[in-house]
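[job 4417] fold queue: 2 targets
>>> target A
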Amino acid sequence: MASAGGNGEEDARKVVLGVIGGSGLLKSAMFAPETMKEEVVETEAGFGKIKLMRKELNEELDIVFAQRHACDVEKDYSPPHLVNFRGLLSAMKQVGVNAILAVCSVGSMRHHIGMGALVLPDDFFCPQHILTTFDDARGHNVPGFNDALRTEILTALFRSGERPLDGGVYVNSNGPRFETKAEIRFMSQCGEIIGMTGAHEATLAKELGIPYAMLAIVDNMANGIGPQLTLEEFFAVQHKNQPKIENAVHVVLNHFKAYPEVLLSLDGDGADASADDKAPSTPASPKEVCDEVVHAKSVVTVDAEERVLENHAVAIKDGKIVDILPSHDADVKYGAFSSTTTKVVRLPDSVLMPGLINAHTHTPMVFMRGFSDDLPLDKWLTEKIWPTEVRTVSKDFVRDGSRLACAEFIRGGVTCFSDMYFFPESTAEIIEETGIRGFPGSIVIGFPSNYAQGPAEYLEKGRKMIEDYSGRTDRLKFCVAPHSTYAVSEEDLIKAHKMAREFNLPFHTHLHETEREVDDSERGDRSSSFCHQCDKKCRPLRNLLDNGIVDEHFVAAHMVHIKDDEIKEYAAAGAHVVHCPTSNLKLASGFCPVQKIVDAGINVAIGTDGASSNNSLDMFQEMKLAAIMAKGVAKEPCAIPATQALRMATINGAKALGIADQVGSLEVGKQADMIAVDLSDLSCLPTYHVVSHLVYACNRHQVSDVWVQGKCLMRSRQLLTIDAGKLRRVAEKWQAIIAEVDSNHDGTYQ
């Protein structure tokens, strides 16, 4: 054993992190006595002998651990009100501790801070007698936790995927007993969590100039806040929370192991603790088990009743939603960390809602973002896009572009998309790889490409793709996607429709996007690139209706130029429309009469179109624009209200794709395709109506977490299935290739 002040000159050069915890941490492999060196420190201020444990993490960092209830050499155990705080903190100072991480068990005085929640309080309230090291003028200071140290700990935890509560007031009670209900009613006016030791440690650490921060875990709902509090339940929950707090401490230690110099740049701060250390020999089993429970401030269901549920949780098992219930009930029903197989995510400032469905896009065209702006559709396609595609598009182009687009989708809250592009098999590969849900389109177009030489080969390859991928994953389905009536012959459109019906797939095409497309077809001007490829002089929709192609599986993107009588026929056929407002405006295609279409009973979804014509894949932008543009076109402020716009971006997209029984709303039995949107930003305060904010105030950068089929694809803005670091280099490579092709091509695409 060593005494007094440290381990010699070699250790004096090291950074030292102090860790104060209860006996639970001592049971952890990280702090096992056989892996640490015991030091007994004779405190210079006369506060007795203190037992510390030292361990070398690497050449630059040591940790010094103290079990607060057993640090006094003269006692086997000290209850909270008798812990030798002055001796403990003085000993930490003497051995050269640069900062202190205090790990504490606390009770929650807020329903939304449930059992198992990690909390890093930013202030404390102590109605008890406060200790001081000096009993003289040196005790004058401004107390508090160290903000810089808190930030480092929060950063480490957020990067690891944990979602600790940032901030809150820790209330210090006296102990050793729990508080009465009356005491909790009083103290809950002063703070969010309650413990018995933290304020004393924080105060003494501040006096001694040691930066101090508390990492607390909720092991019980305070007396009167939840169900009847019992010691047995407290011990059981504390025992079951042990793996979570151990993991959090492990994450923080690894962070400082990598960046020990951070601890030398701090200035000084405080902590908390647990009431008792014993745990039952046989922990209680949870009543029910699921894979994950996600708690949120609000749950926007987008169900038939359009419910918005406050302080609710969504329980997930085997990729499906098995429960939607109040957060407190979820803690009781699912045990709140009573099983190591159940993950609990708490998002106290966020809204949970269905994932957005981008019902019309061209994913690989992200590589043409900003490539050709400020042109009408005909010139944009025939002079820039098609000539470049003929010379550029390949399997690798589509694979790389789809991966970049899927990263943008996920970060923007899109969980499902319907695509139309060449080499759809490559897009299918990326859907499987990234975990998103998608409908690659079996493309058909009238001119040859690197993918196929003509319509027959397009259809043949599409059939093979659909058959090869059949049943591989529920997330991957297909649509039959002939480009348009002006790029595909009448005969081949009929063949494509027959194949769609054979496989029971959506029929996805562009229709009535521009006036020229409609007018040239009515005149029968076959010299025009935008006249439909049939001998009839009629509007394109008329010919599709006459051929029986327009049915309940028919999905038309755009439909900007549609007449009132056509709307009635289209509605009678049960077909769907995908509204792409940004692309239509940017290409000056016109204004889709969305309100008229909706009033006729037609299902309207929303799409971004490709990033080449939109410049982004932002479905939040499309929702807002769809709502406000409809009001201007209809000259009616009630046109497309926020609730309708949200449905268009979620459940209506699912209806168009034939999967509304699986996704598009948050309902028990459906797949857990959902996103969390953080409303803590100042731009979303105050919040009177959550759905209004989602449509009119929020942006895609507020999406924090994304799940598809119960699997988390993004946590705390960090992509979990895509290496974002590689995407920039890949995009730069394709930018150079496209720029070179553009500078050399002769303007032809056939």
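>>> target B
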Amino acid sequence: MVSSAVLPGRSTLADVAAIQHPVPQGSAGKIMMRETAIHDLINLRCQPDNKKANALVKKLTSHALPSANQSVQAGDRTIIWLAPDEWLIMAEAGAASTIMADMETAKLGHVATTEVSNAYGIISIDGKSSRDMLAKHCALDLHESVFTKGTAIQTIMGHAGIILIATGDNSFNIIGRASFMPYLVALLADASVEYGFEYRPAK
């Protein structure tokens, strides 16, 4: 007989230990990198002018669907634009089933939701030199006048596809495929040596 017990969530970086490098002379300050706690992720497909879908998303997340290359956040829930008819909803652990059930029962028309929580990992980055560090492996224009808070773009970092989100003046979230997360930590750590850095896994 197969057990119906729910297995506890496991971080995509559970096997990557904490790393740190001292701040060298002349550095503007160390870069902090943290694996975020486990979140639920939902891929949402619908037309942006679907009024019923927008209204329900706003009820569930406190925001309507954001426009191109933007993200919006309220509390533990964030909506990230991925494509003209595609968004990623990030919510607190355990929320996906409720959100998806609410959207399924609302009869919103041509709308599809898929839970992708286990497919991705998230790293948060903060520090005065974070933009310079990220620019070493990312071809986007990361100047603060261009890549402002709330900007969210799918791009390539090293050899990995990621979603890069500006969460503050010098803070970012990187969402990447689970299998690439250890590689991304190693890549970011190497790029941060000249500034000094600390990486902390999720508790």
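[job 4417] complete. Note on B: The chain has a mean pLDDT of 91.
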